[in-house]
């Protein structure tokens, strides 16, 4: 069937704007909002009996997996091994019996991800797939499928599939935590309530588009951009840099903020904007000291934060993009939106082919 752009300039823009709705569909597939619980469809493994999970994927799907590592480890006390599929498939990672493996893929056809899945299949551990295309090879070869209900994604750079992958993984982390007894019924209820508010915050994030468009115009004047973040904002920094380089062709790198002093600080000058993704969470003050290091070297900071964060940062920025204060568990899902919009608007100013960037394919089915 045909999917059209409606009144949007690009599929990517349309898909960014669909997020409140598709996130809502996806979350309600996994969470019972009335009961305040994660749903318990039967699984080919028992979260309570697992010692670890292995996660593998490529590109943006890998970064969704990387965010989920923080969730599974923090809430469910379940260790996660995660790697890009092109490494995973050749690493010969030992797979202890009490493991399960998750593969994250929009298309369900990515060659390296499929090869990693087959490696785990040969190791004899249960396999779960988080996929958007339910008729795909990866879905077919898995023991259980966790669909993302994003609908068809046309833009090569993944947007709504990413936030739906995060939604599924957050819901699974809550379920795992509940089944492992690492959160109480009360805490489960609280997390489910917080997750239920994601679409509302995503809608508010979309209202920042006019400001982000202006920031994108500025960003389009630069050749290099650095993204920094800590905790779950670290994968988000890498995702921001990935999106920007993919569609605007501006060189961008995403780093863990604490690694700044181990290399990238050497690059800081007034010609390299530094985008800092930092809601006021447990690691906020640490990130602020990294921003001070950037500011002291004349770096231009574009801070993506929340109300409380902008009040507490106490630093002169080039631009500050302010989201509402929100629960910590949903921040990675909601912060994806300004990050995507920034890449999108920068690319539009650059005049690139946003939906079909050069040299990239929507689905990489060869190695
Ligand atoms: C390509 C796409 C990316 C995507 C990656 C993984 O590189 O351009 O947007 O994240 O493949 O694709 P998958 O279908 O496995 O999620």
TrEMBL record:
It is found in: Cytoplasm. Residues 43-182, 215-357 form the SIS domain. Keywords: Aminotransferase, Cytoplasm, Glutamine amidotransferase, Repeat, Transferase. GO terms for molecular function: carbohydrate derivative binding; glutamine-fructose-6-phosphate transaminase (isomerizing) activity. It catalyses: D-fructose 6-phosphate + L-glutamine = D-glucosamine 6-phosphate + L-glutamate. One of its GO terms (cellular component) is cytosol. Signal peptide: none annotated. The active site is at residue 362. The keyword Glycosyltransferase does not apply. One of its GO terms (biological process) is fructose 6-phosphate metabolic process. Its EC number is 2.6.1.16. Catalyzes the first step in hexosamine metabolism, converting fructose-6P into glucosamine-6P using glutamine as a nitrogen source. Homodimer. This is Glutamine--fructose-6-phosphate aminotransferase [isomerizing]. It comes from Aquibium oceanicum. The lineage of its organism: Bacteria, Pseudomonadati, Pseudomonadota, Alphaproteobacteria, Hyphomicrobiales. The gene is glmS. The chain holds residues 241 to 607 of 607 of the full protein.
């Amino acid at each position: 069937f045909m999917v059209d752009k409606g009144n949007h300039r690009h599929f990517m823009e349309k898909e960014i704007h669909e997020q409140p709705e598709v996130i809502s569909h996806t979350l309600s597939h996994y969470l019972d909002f009335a009961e305040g619980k994660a749903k318990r469809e039967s699984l080919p493994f028992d979260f309570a009996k697992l010692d670890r999970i292995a996660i593998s994927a490529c590109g943006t799907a890998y970064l969704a997996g990387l965010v989920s590592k923080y969730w599974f480890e923090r809430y469910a006390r379940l260790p996660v091994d995660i790697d890009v599929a092109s490494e995973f498939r050749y690493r010969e990672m030992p797979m202890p019996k009490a493991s399960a493996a998750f593969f994250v893929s929009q298309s369900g056809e990515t060659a390296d991800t499929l090869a990693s899945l087959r490696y785990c299949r040969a190791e004899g551990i249960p396999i779960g797939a988080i996929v958007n295309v339910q008729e795909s090879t990866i879905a077919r070869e898995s023991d259980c499928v966790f669909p993302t209900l994003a609908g068809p994604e046309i833009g090569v750079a993944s947007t709504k599939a990413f936030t739906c992958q995060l939604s599924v993984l957050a819901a699974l982390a809550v379920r795992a935590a509940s089944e492992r007894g690492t959160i109480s019924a009360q805490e489960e209820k609280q997390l489910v309530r917080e997750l239920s508010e994601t679409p509302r915050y995503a809608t508010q994030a979309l209202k920042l588009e006019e400001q982000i468009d202006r920031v994108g115009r500025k960003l389009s004047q630069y050749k290099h951009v650095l993204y920094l973040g800590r905790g779950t904002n670290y994968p988000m920094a890498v995702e921001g840099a990935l999106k920007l380089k993919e569609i605007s062709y501006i060189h961008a790198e995403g780093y863990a903020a604490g690694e700044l002093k181990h290399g990238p600080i050497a690059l800081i000058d007034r010609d390299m904007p530094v985008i800092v993704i930092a809601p006021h969470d447990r690691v906020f003050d640490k990130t602020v000291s990294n921003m001070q290091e950037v500011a002291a070297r004349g770096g231009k900071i574009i801070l993506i934060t929340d109300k409380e964060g902008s009040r507490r940062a106490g630093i002169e920025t080039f631009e500050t993009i302010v989201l509402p204060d929100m629960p910590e568990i949903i921040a990675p899902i909601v912060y994806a939106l300004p990050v995507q919009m920034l890449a999108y608007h920068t690319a539009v100013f650059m005049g690139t082919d946003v939906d079909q960037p050069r040299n990239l394919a929507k689905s990489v089915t060869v190695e």
